[in-house]
Amino acid sequence: MERLTKDQIQELPIYEGISLENIVVVTKEEDAINVIAELKKYTCLGFDTESKPCFKKEDVSDGPHLIQIATKSKVFLFPTKFYRNFSNIEEVLSDPKIKKVGFGLKEDKKLLLRNFGIKLVNSEDLSSKVMRFVQAKQRVGARAAVAIFFNQRLSKNAQKSNWSIFPLKDHQKKYAANDAHSALLIELEIEKSSRVIAQ
């Protein structure tokens, strides 16, 4: 497996990832109770957050405005403007028995703790894990990792969206869901390959 250049990645087919019908936006308390109970059954989940971009140096983010949690078959999106309806999400994010995997999690962890008092426990930043796995010289971001593992291009067209506005548009849902979902799939690929090598 080799790291591709930006030009090579640009030539790849788009990563479709998870379908819209398998993306669930959670805003109501009764839905959140069921979803969080379901998520607590897993030992590993894909994770990411989105925040409204800050364009001035002095701006301080009041994000994250969206929390994404992925299983293999579904991605759950939690817009934090409804946080009071799913504050028990901390039971998943702070559970040491559930591993949370994603890319570039340093800022996500900082904002979750500062603005919501949630400590992200048992998380692994795949940027370094993928770098070691493919023996790259630099940390590997989500887009490069998807290109390496799936030979497809992860779209970043919604990255600078205003994530604080609700409802989310379909392309925002897909973008946000695929960030968390692709991270989980890459973690599973690495673990599968590691087991094969160990045999």
Taking the alpha carbons of the first and last residues, their distance comes to: 20 Å
Total beta strands: 6
Shape: globular
Q: Which class of secondary structure composition applies to the elements? A: alpha/beta
What do the pLDDT scores average to? 92
N to C succession of SSEs:
HEHEEEHEHEHHH
Oligomeric status of the shown chains?
single chain
Strand order of the largest sheet: 1-4-3-2-5-6
Number of helices: 7
* Proportion of beta-strand residues: 5-15%
Q: Tell me about the largest β-sheet.
A: 6 strands, mixed
Helix content: 25-40%
Unreliable parts: none
Radius of gyration: 16 Å
Topology, pairings included?
Blueprint (H helix, E strand, L loop, with lengths): L5 H5 L12 E3 L3 H11 L4 E7 L15 E5 L4 E5 L10 H4 L5 E4 L2 H12 L6 E3 H9 L7 H9 L19 H29 L1
Parallel strand pairs: 1-4, 2-5, 5-6
Antiparallel strand pairs: 2-3, 3-4
Helix pairs in contact: 6-7
